[in-house]
Fold these 4 entries.
Entry 1:
Amino acid sequence: MRENKQAVFGPHLRLLGMAVLWGASWPAGRVIAQNMPPLAGACLRFVLAALVLLPWMYYAGGFAQLRQWSAQRWLGMVAAGATGVFGYAAFFLSGLQYLPAGKAALVITLNPVVTLLLAVWIFKERLNRTIALGMLLAAAGAVVVISHGRPQDILHGSVGLGELLILGCVACWVAYTLLGRVMLTGVDALTTTAVTSTIGAVLLLVASLVVEGPAGLQAAVHSNGTAWGALLFLSWGATALAYAWYFDGVKALGAGAASGYITLVPVIGVVISALLLGESVDASMLVGGAMAVAGTAVMNWGRRPA
């Protein structure tokens, strides 16, 4: 009986744990951004993540396939590492220097909307009315959050620097997702994550040395214990462990069911940011966040197989 319950509820509990870890990554990132130079902090994050992901990949037998990869496959990995790791991580910590973690977590709800819009244009994916309704609702909610409840202000260019940097996260993640569909087909998720994380860590190291200088890494290394705790959580909890649980959920339940749990991430991010960091939640975040999360849920519902 216990084994049956574990088989039924285990994947759901791990996916819920994944959503909590990814939601908590936003306040953790805010702590790091307030105590470390952003590029140096992002570099250390993925160096630490690679220390877990590469041995995991090795024991899973992933290294054997690397010698068989073509130049195009390696080019795809570099492009994915440059967008989904280097670009996303740099914008992530840079944006969290200026923007509260809870608000940033809600802005990211634009990811599936922009990704799907471009997939319709580039890959000729089809939309139905449910998906279109969800996209409109999610996009409108994100606009309410970004504009502090005054959408008309966006037309006058009054969006803050923090919001613009987090929108850079959106652009990088969308590029990573679309590149993956073209250049990374046939590569398992663990190998993709381990290799792109390693490539991204190298790019972040170079960028940190060029932009912040050696003093940037020294400042990051000598940061306080709270910042290092957040960094270790972000590297091993919100990256390695969360991805392991996510892969397990996809394998057990399918990508559609697993993606439904991602809808919880911004909500959890707002709650944990308020509890741990004392961030306030204003009316625009409540209304816009509810719209964005509901829209994402409707999109996931509309994409279910008939």
Entry 2:
Amino acid sequence: MNDPYRPGTPCWIDLMVPDQQAAIDFYCDLFGWQGEVGPPEQGGYSVCTLKGKPVAGIMKAMNPDGSVPDPMPPTAWTTYLSTDAIDATLRSVTDAGGAVVVPPMDVMDLGRMAVIADPAGAVFGLWQPGTFGGAGIVNEHGALIWSELTTPDPEAASAFYSAALPVTATPSEMEGAGGYVEFQVDGRAVGGMMDMSKVPPGVPPHWQPYFAVDSVDDIQAAAVRAGATVLAPAFDMVAGRMAVLADPQGGPFSVISPKAS
């Protein structure tokens, strides 16, 4: 990525876990990342890299005062959508029925962030870039390639995201993808949405990252050897071959080897 992310586009992901070092080791071994626990002045936040470019963050679960949460929140990836005016976006979010989970804050000179819950409860972040624009590599092996919202009411979610951000929710025209919705920015698909009917009962509304991999089957096997759980074994679908996994601390993510376009 050499150009700034357009507002509304997924631009960064990070993971909050009880055992930060174990998560760094797992994902670095699985995807070929480099990473280490960050300095104290950054709360230990780890910016993992691929080919020297930032691809994802991993942080230890903690309260704002540095104490250990009780109960511990579930391990989960957060998807951040880019904005060029976070305060105005937050007003649009609340006007459209969303809730502010973490109010906007400056992250040194890197940018400003906030965490939001949409009306159905799916949590996502907002990122207003400063010196840091987001992921430096996407759509390559080991890097983010897709972000997907699973929600009980796609029609309501379409209205919310279109009101809160400069995105358009459009039925996918991909053959065999009936019912799937794409989030588009300037006519380009940047994420997707599906309803809850295709996930097991009890799974809450959520955003989930997809990582591009050269071989889904090899990555699935490597992940299992490292203690991960298979939520949906490798299967072929309209966009390629994919699997849904949960890392050893329970964080769900998808891997996909996309069909050649």
Entry 3:
Amino acid sequence: MTFNRVHLIRQVDLFTLRLFLTAVEEQQIGRAAIRENIAASTATKRIQDLEEIAGIELLERTPKGVMATPAGEVLARHIRAIFGSLDDMRAEIAAFTEGVRGEVTVASARSIIAPFLARELADFSRDFPGVDLVIRELENADIVQAVAQGEADVGVFAVARDLDLGGVETADYRTDRLVAVVPRTHALSARSSVSFEDLMPENLIAVGAMSAAFAAAAKRLGQEYKPKFSVRSTGVAISLVQAGFGVTVQPECLLGMELFDSVAAVDLTEPWAKRVILIATARGRTPSPAARALIKHLQGTPPPASEGLAGD
């Protein structure tokens, strides 16, 4: 027998394909018939007809049941893809008749959620009440991994050195910048800009993943970064700066105006001080209508006015 593609397309219905896939999963035609609510004899006849139309044996019969032949495994894989596409089609068409609905898991970091995403996600929820948002706060590298592994539908992250983007597709979101935060009475507060080399002699306070960026920047200068303080939040880092324990580097968007009585923000003249923020989705997987609506909303939202948040 030889595979006959034309006969397969013209004569096989979706129910028969579903029945075949169920038989592969159940490893018994009888159990597949029960699951699909048809007579066992009818199920057997449908699968036999499918094999005849395909022109190749798809199931190997044994005393204990059935198992897919190599050709049957190929067919089962493509049937799963067909039904996955049909589910996507149903969801997209339903968006026209029912409005956008569904659940979207968003992964991002605090330094992006606090100044940008929280407000924009709230606006999206008001515009799309049928979409349930699940928000996960993760470290920057974990955001990309969560999206690539299907644990999050949309990730919003800052581009970083050595961050593996092989498993995701990216789209532009926005940019902001990192600045040096120093006590108002510090000598560096009078400067219009500073370099990382200028900060190295100071007690440089890192927040979370920023330690790796500091270590890499120090290594490029032939030095070693040995932090005395390593903290988990911008609020704690700035409180230490206010108390005179050192200096820190933070996204400018996180600095509220009320802080500038006690600290100064100084431009950082480093290429990595420009923070590029991207939106990530899983490579090779079409986002749901709800996820696409969210991405469109995020990309169409103008940057907020110059106001920030400090604290946890």
Entry 4:
Amino acid sequence: MRIETAVTRLLGIELPIVQAGMSWAASAPELPLAVARAGGLGVIAAGPMRLPDLERTIDTVRAGTDAPFAVNLPLYRKGADGVIDLLLAKRIPILIASQGGPKRYLERFRDAGTICLHVVAAEEHAAKAAAAGVDGLIVVGGEAGGQPPASMVSTLVMLRAVVRAVPAIPVIASGGFADGQGLAAALALGAGAAQFGTRFMASTEANLHPAYKDLVLGAGVEDTRTVGRELGMIRALANDFTERMAALENTGADLDQRRTQFTTSTLKMAAFDGDVADGKVEAGQSVGLIDEILPAGEIIHKIANEYLATLAALPRAKGQVRAVMD
């Protein structure tokens, strides 16, 4: 099956389905490799990885498929310049950069032939990234897990705003997508693909502790919390950590108190160690739409088939639409 859009043509993928670079969940080759083999864009998460591990993961994915894949790099991470040097040396097909400006990396990756996507969460940033010359944008809305935009504007609205602001550049929508109906909505709103994060956390290949996956499966759409304003706000599943943070925020605790609590808990505690009470169990609001763990390839095929079924079920207009004139 192929679903052709501006994004699939740009990236050389068969389906407009992008697996988010979700830190620990995508810090091993199994998930991005499975997604790439199934026709989507598999993404390696460079954020938490040491350089030797990242190099091995890139080599494993490249050896396992001829399909394109991407590496996600948060530009604020410690040692980002060293990661950039490694990615240039490995001549990765696609770079997804976030948490920083594109001028830092764009010229060198363009010279290396790498397609560059930049993550944005506001019209202003989208216009600047497009003007700088990135090849495409990933637009993140307030529903997203991990680090949603501080404005909390929904993907529904932010995506339309960005598409209107920079209509000539391919756009991927991110935040709130878990199924083929969501993919249909993203494409209808002007995106060329949708990015799925939380949905792929509930895959057999996701590099997450079983306790993390169990919490994802048991959660509803109202079970996430946003905590950590002024500290790098995150959206995570409600647990003891989010309750402590919310208590500090609601009582007006000073920034140092909140920072101490916020930094004491980590994503690694939950994702790697399985401490889902005191760790950061990052997830998006779409967590409530997920009720089973499946192989990543099956998730891809299910989303694509749901998309086709959604299109077939849409009402068809009869006759001609007539303009109403005063």
